[in-house]
Design a protein that fits this description.
six-stranded mixed beta sheet; about 400 residues; about 35% helix; four-stranded antiparallel beta sheet; alpha+beta; about 15% strand
Length: about 400
């Protein structure tokens, strides 16, 4: 029992002091050690320091007083392996041009620009810290994570509005479209509203320039989401173009994680400047920054390549005239009325107002009495002739 008590007291003596109290502890030790009747060895045991350190403190105090007890820099007088001044200057200048870029992006971009003798990204992080260009909180927040992606460009585009913000007059609603595979920003528009016509006009311009994707993903909000699980006029237009459409899970923005991450980058590198007066001014800033994002900014998820290196335009051109709605053999066709309903087997079935006046198809499923309700090749819902006409709507 006595041995355990002695061990506990010894452990308490050697516990490190909090850094913020270190100078106070040293000063107290010195003051006690300078008393005429002081037992320096005993004080060393009680303060948990070695005699060598204790006598060093006493010598420093005698030479410079209290201030001399503070920690001294351990930096060597000569650093032959220190980063060349011109390289350090290039790192600092590039960081100031792009305050949201981390060390790995800076390292890759400087290499692409032909700077020789670049140190490791970890050294670049040290340079940023020395120049006060990165905060400790930002370092802690920079945690890597993994995303899934489509194997090729134009297979899947993510579409979303970023949260709108006030201008000198009105509000701005940034609309972004991102290619899932390459992270290439297909469209970045400063819109004055979120209306269906605005979105259709912007997407038309993107389709004309980049071609058609195989599939689009957007959320359930206006203007492309009805909130009730039904398809919208924008959905119907996209389907007429031969593009499949899907909606993210309600209240689950992670479904469009890449677009959400793009919005964070947009906020940090462009919108955080503030002082916006109108949408044309914001659009000019978008037009200046978009080539930087697509062709200069190294992307962590792409092994520090730029999005352009993985993107190519779609071979599917935008049709200036919508193609006719046609169905394969074996599909029964019915035309939806102005209410968005059809008559089938002497019953009325709701299709959705988005398809009012359009022909829709019915195809038997593997379950007797259950039919797939189609618009072109897209499954809209299933109807069950064995039950009352209240078809369920699957997640598109």
């Amino acid at each position: 029992m006595v041995d355990r008590c002695n061990q506990a007291r010894a452990a308490w003596f050697i516990m490190p002091w909090p850094v913020k109290d270190l100078l106070t502890v040293r000063l107290e030790f010195v003051q006690l050690a300078l008393r005429p009747d002081a037992n320096v060895r005993q004080l060393c045991r009680r303060f948990g320091v070695s005699p060598t350190v204790a006598y060093r403190w006493l010598a420093r105090f005698a030479a410079g007083g209290e201030a001399a007890l503070a920690d001294r820099s351990r930096r060597p007088r000569h650093s032959p392996r220190r980063t060349a001044p011109e390289v350090e200057q290039a790192v600092v200048e590039l960081r100031r041009q792009h305050p949201a870029w981390g060390a790995r992006k800076l390292h890759r971009r400087l290499g692409d620009l032909g700077h020789p003798g670049l140190p490791a990204p970890s050294t670049l992080t040290g340079i940023l810290h020395r120049h006060g260009l990165v905060s400790p909180a930002a370092s802690v927040a920079a945690t890597p994570f993994t995303r899934f992606e489509r194997p090729g460009p134009n297979q899947f585009w993510q579409v979303d509005f970023k949260g709108h913000f006030a201008l000198g007059t009105g509000r701005c609603h940034p609309l972004g479209v991102l290619d899932d595979h390459s992270r290439y920003n297909v469209l970045l528009a400063a819109c004055a509203d979120q209306r269906e016509g605005t979105v259709q006009a912007q997407l038309t311009g993107a389709f004309r320039r980049h071609g058609l994707p195989e599939q689009l993903l957007w959320d359930n909000g206006s203007p492309w989401g009805s909130g009730g699980g039904e398809y919208t006029a924008l959905d119907a237009w996209i389907l007429r173009l031969g593009v499949r459409v899907s909606h993210g899970r309600a209240y689950h923005p992670q479904t469009q994680g890449k677009e959400e991450r793009f919005h964070r980058t947009l906020q940090a590198e462009v919108l955080a400047r503030g002082g916006w007066t109108d949408c044309p001014q914001v659009q000019r800033a978008f037009d200046e920054w978009r080539p930087v994002y697509n062709t200069q900014r190294p992307h962590e998820a792409l092994a520090l390549a730029v999005p352009l290196s993985r993107y190519r335009p779609s071979p599917r051109s935008f049709p200036e005239t919508l193609p006719p709605v046609e169905y394969a053999d074996g599909v029964e066709v019915r035309r939806a009325d102005l209410k968005g309903a059809i008559s089938y087997r002497n019953r009325e079935w709701k299709v959705g107002r988005a398809f009012a006046g359009q022909p829709v198809g019915l195809r038997p499923t593997a379950t007797d009495g259950v039919f797939a309700l189609l618009f072109l090749t897209q499954l809209i819902k299933e109807i069950d002739l064995r039950q009352n006409p209240s078809p369920t709507t699957p997640n598109p």
